[in-house]
Amino acid sequence: MTRYQVVTVRREIGAAELLDAEEFRQRMTSHGTLVANILSSPGSGKTSLLSATADRLSPEFRCGVLVGDIATDRDAQRLADHAPAVQLTTGGACHLEFSLIERGRQALGDRELDFLFIENIGNLVCPASHDLGEHLRVLLLSTTEGDDKPAKYPKAFRTSHALVISKCDLLPYVPFEVDRAVADARSIRSDLAVFPTSSRPAQGLEAWCDYLIDQRRRLLGGHPCRPNR
Amino acid sequence: MTRYQVVTVRREIGAAELLDAEEFRQRMTSHGTLVANILSSPGSGKTSLLSATADRLSPEFRCGVLVGDIATDRDAQRLADHAPAVQLTTGGACHLEFSLIERGRQALGDRELDFLFIENIGNLVCPASHDLGEHLRVLLLSTTEGDDKPAKYPKAFRTSHALVISKCDLLPYVPFEVDRAVADARSIRSDLAVFPTSSRPAQGLEAWCDYLIDQRRRLLGGHPCRPNR
Question: What's the structural domain count of chain A?
Fold first, then answer.
């Protein structure tokens, strides 16, 4: 039994449809759906974070996930136990563009959603330049990548509202200073919300989920955070 | 005192110069310089690997390093204690293109080199599509990124000659099976040379350096490995 769907687009994604991202964002707002776009390097733990997040938000909130990858549907398979998931496969392209998001939302069907999560391609560079119609851009940085990443990938940090630091359970074994990474990131974007977490064992997820719920409350109240491109 | 140089090119790198990559490769061959292009995600340990590699190869062999980053010269600062290093800053672009390599080699001056290492931008996607005139393409994958990466980033694995697995000291703490990652990678490229390593403490570097020395010997003997794009 297929528990998820696959949308594959090869080399036909184009820049023209980016103009529709703002219309999509407004439509999602009117439906009460907070859209969060998750950016990170390969292997920082996007799928693990979203699985744990969906588990915590359900059943009070209805979640859906669009999962971007260059190839394979492994992440949608992993997520399907936690939330309705649609795999978006770019067939080589290094980032998601808006046209895939619109198709992915349609593939999720008519179900109402409180949260729509977009797991972007594992890439700290190119996805930062593409508006996917999200309300919230979230950057995920794992402790194993090093605390020097904010200054080296400034656009990803500058355009994100929140920073989730993953794999904090590995802090005793890696040269990563949380304070240094946060100071570096906030020198690029001073109002960045920061959430240190780990998933083995689960830590820090409550504050992160509370933040998401609060952001949705602001959205419903007519006060969403502003996209900052 | 500046111990390294910075070459900055903003948005002027173009595809046309890629045609010169083959000429550069042949020129480096005639000079006895093995050129190795190192690809990985952000934070996999490219700079640490190259620092340790230069330490082991010197003084018997003369090494130079071209260090790609989107912003900052932190990696060239780190490398300058180990080998002559030139920082290549793309000002936003997600990969190195050949024009920067030619300028970087010129910036290293007239010194003869046995090995020229290129540390590419931290990105497992876009750099795989660009020939930098290298003889050897090396993919660095850290154990903390997960053993599911080969199938998800197939072009980077298909076009690489060697796979260095870094951070093997963290294997007791992360869900990474070396055998699974290697089998996955070799299902994409069967002749991939594989080197499990760690830099804290240093392990596996001798086999890796022996491989480099052997590849240079083949180059001097007129039998370099073939670029496989």
Answer: 1
